[in-house]
């Protein structure tokens, strides 16, 4: 967008030529439609995958065929070629509105976040009685989740061993996130925990908004340190013995 005129000069040299002006405006305006167009293009295959048939048919029809064509018929007589560029931008907002309305109708309420916009079907997700959601913002809360998960497992009739392992694993993972992820900057962080009882399975999920952690970089850094290498070797021996 900033280089619109230099890019235009690669093709047209006369600034007084109307084509020169339209090309400059194209470079400046068309990138604005890309984020919403990408959202729409991504949402269609998702809607098809979860068998939301109505929106998976309506959205491609609206995207371009209705959004661009109708807006162009209105704007081009008034704005010439610039009307086509702006029509593409408006098309993105129209498609986003279709996604919003579709999620609203599916949920019977206004969507508040990305998961709401996805309107995940119940057969893919689980009902509120089959899961427990906990948000952790401090080490004190991380320590207390073990009790909450154990109580959830007890109410669902899960055996004691799996209940103990689920609560212990999640407490350890949440504690590691708080200890190592929350302290890297001065921003507010949280770790969202979900424990799901689905069929005969217990599914543990933890999601945080901390700085990204790259395991391969950690491995490279620790593998060069003889102390860490020794610890890793002993850990592998223990795991091998445990498996046997």
Can you tell me the overall shape?
elongated
Low-confidence stretches: none
Structure summary, number of beta strands: 3
What is the structural class?
mainly alpha
Write out the strand line-up for the largest beta sheet, numbering strands in chain order. Answer: 1-2-3
SSE inventory with pairings:
Layout: H1 4-9, H2 18-29, H3 34-49, H4 53-79, H5 81-107, H6 114-118, E1 131-136, H7 139-155, H8 160-181, E2 191-198, E3 201-208, H9 215-223, H10 226-243
Antiparallel strand pairs: 1-2, 2-3
Kindly summarize this structure in a few lines.
The protein has 244 residues and is mostly helical. The protein contains ten helices and three strands; from the N terminus they run H-H-H-H-H-H-E-H-H-E-E-H-H. It has helices spanning 4-9, 18-29, 34-49, 53-79, 81-107, 114-118, 139-155, 160-181, 215-223, 226-243, and strands at 131-136, 191-198, 201-208.
Could you please describe the fold and organization of this structure?
With 244 residues, the chain is mainly α. It has two domains: 4-118, no CATH class; 130-213, Heat Shock Protein 90, CATH 3.30.565.10. Helix content is 65%, strand content 9%. It is built from ten helices and three strands. It has helices at residues 4-9, 18-29, 34-49, 53-79, 81-107, 114-118, 139-155, 160-181, 215-223, 226-243, and strands at 131-136, 191-198, 201-208. A three-stranded antiparallel sheet has the order 1-2-3, covered by helices on one side.
């Amino acid at each position: 967008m900033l280089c619109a005129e230099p890019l235009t000069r690669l093709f047209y040299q006369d600034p007084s030529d109307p084509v020169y002006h339209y090309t400059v405006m194209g470079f400046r305006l068309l990138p604005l439609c890309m984020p919403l167009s990408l959202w729409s293009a991504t949402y269609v295959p998702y809607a098809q995958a979860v068998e939301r048939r109505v929106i998976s048919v309506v959205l491609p029809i609206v995207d371009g065929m209705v959004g661009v064509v109708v807006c162009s018929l209105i704007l081009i007589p008034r704005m010439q070629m610039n009307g086509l560029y702006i029509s593409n931008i408006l098309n993105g907002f129209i498609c986003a509105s279709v996604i919003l309305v579709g999620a609203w109708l599916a949920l019977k309420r206004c969507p508040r976040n990305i998961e709401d916009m996805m309107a995940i079907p119940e057969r893919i997700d689980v009902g509120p009685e089959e899961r427990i959601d906990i948000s952790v913002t401090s080490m004190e809360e991380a320590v207390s989740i073990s009790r909450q998960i154990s109580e959830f497992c007890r109410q669902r009739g899960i055996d004691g061993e799996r209940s103990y392992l689920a609560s212990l694993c999640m407490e350890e993972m949440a504690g590691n996130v708080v200890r190592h992820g929350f302290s890297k900057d001065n921003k507010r962080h949280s770790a969202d925990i979900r424990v799901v009882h689905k069929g005969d399975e217990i599914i543990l999920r933890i999601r945080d908004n901390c700085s990204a952690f790259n395991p391969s970089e950690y491995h490279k850094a620790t593998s060069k340190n003889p102390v860490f290498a020794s610890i890793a070797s002993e850990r592998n021996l223990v795991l091998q013995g445990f498996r046997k």
